[in-house]
Amino acid sequence: MGSHPVRRYQCRPARRCVTSARSRVVAWESPSRKFGGASAQVSAAVVSFAMLADPTRVRMLWSLRETDSDVATLAAAAGCRPTVASQHLSKLRLAGLVEGTRDGRRVLYRLRGGHVRHLLEEAMGHADHQVTGAPIHD
After folding, report:
1. Could you tell me the pTM of the whole model?
2. Which CATH number is correct for 53-132, 3.40.50.300, 1.10.10.10, 3.40.50.1000, 3.40.50.2300?
3. Residue 33: how many CB atoms within 10 A of its CB?
4. For a designed S-S bond to 74, which of 37, 51, 60, 128 qualifies (C-beta 3.0 to 4.6 A apart)?
């Protein structure tokens, strides 16, 4: 899948436009229709879910569950070139899902907190139920 640049959209005065790293995802916020005052949280969740909509990113995130990794290791885990992995990591970093720490000439990436790890594990658990037909549970 190709990556899409961030596009800025002209918004109506009564609404605020929120764009994600993928130009296809746009969340419109209306002051009169906020979700219990949590519209910023809804917009942030939309961006996070959009980042999980790419198989390469999910493979890299899944690999980061276990240990911190550099770009080359994550590229091997995702089955892509390091330049492609680096572009995906940039988007994941901007979305707040990963963070990097410089180690000499390389950068080690890790998941940004337990919430990201739990979100990923729940998504993969749900996918496992969908694929295997295992019964739904709470």
Report:
1. 0.71
2. 1.10.10.10
3. 9
4. 60
